[in-house]
Amino acid sequence: MNKISINNPYFITQLIEGNHNAYETLFHLYFEKLHYVAVSYIENTEDAKEIIQNIFLKVWKKKQILTPEMNLNAYLFKMVKNECLDYLKHTKVQLKYRKKLEIERAYLNEKALKNDPSQLLIESELQNKIEGLINQLPANCREVFIKSRIEGLKYAEIANELNISVKTVENQISKALRYLRHELQEYMGLFL
To answer: Rounded to whole angstroms, how far apart are CA atoms 184 and 178?
Structure first.
């Protein structure tokens, strides 16, 4: 059998008849070649190896569909291509399904947090605390901060409206933010 081509009708007939030596010869001659082709399609060595092993298993189990006239070489390479395409389609479906599950899980977690009474209580408490802290700011600082963060005015607009420099606006905002950050430290862990 050493000099027999795998496309030789005698060799294929031996496979059809279940000759283990013919099957082992086919395996040893083609495993690495088919594996190389599979890796070029899917880039995952272990999965490619599993695909090739499944192909040889199919050839053994469905040996009755082989015919002595067939081109076994072309048949094997076509099987690799088809199995790899099926693998890629399956992987794509899995990724899409996983992504969908992650989106649904994130949505449900967000919804659960929004509807969580303790979360609503914390948000309400935090809102009251922020309003109280803003009211404790010095009058000029409070006015600049409200115009910037609540009314949404730009620094230049605030400076123009209050007849102060943009630098003064920046300093007042920095002062307010430093104060709020310091006073709200206990809440920071909730939003990280």
So the answer is: 10
pLDDT of residue 108: 74
2 belongs to a structural domain: no
Write the DSSP string, 170-185.
HHHHHHHHHHHHHHTH
Domain membership flag for residue 1: no
Statement to judge: residues 100 and 121 lie in one domain: no
CB 33 within 8 A of CB 80: no
pLDDT tens, 163-176? 999 999 999 999 99
Burial label for 84, CB within 10 Å (0-12, 13-18, 19+), is buried
User: Which residues are CB-neighbours of 151 under 8 A, at least 6 positions away?
Assistant: none
147 located within any domain: yes
Are 22 and 68 found together in one domain?
yes
Q: For residue range 87-116, list pLDDT tens digits in order.
A: 999 988 888 888 888 888 877 767 666 666
Q: With left for phi above 0 and alpha for psi between -120 and 50, is residue 163 left, alpha or beta?
A: left
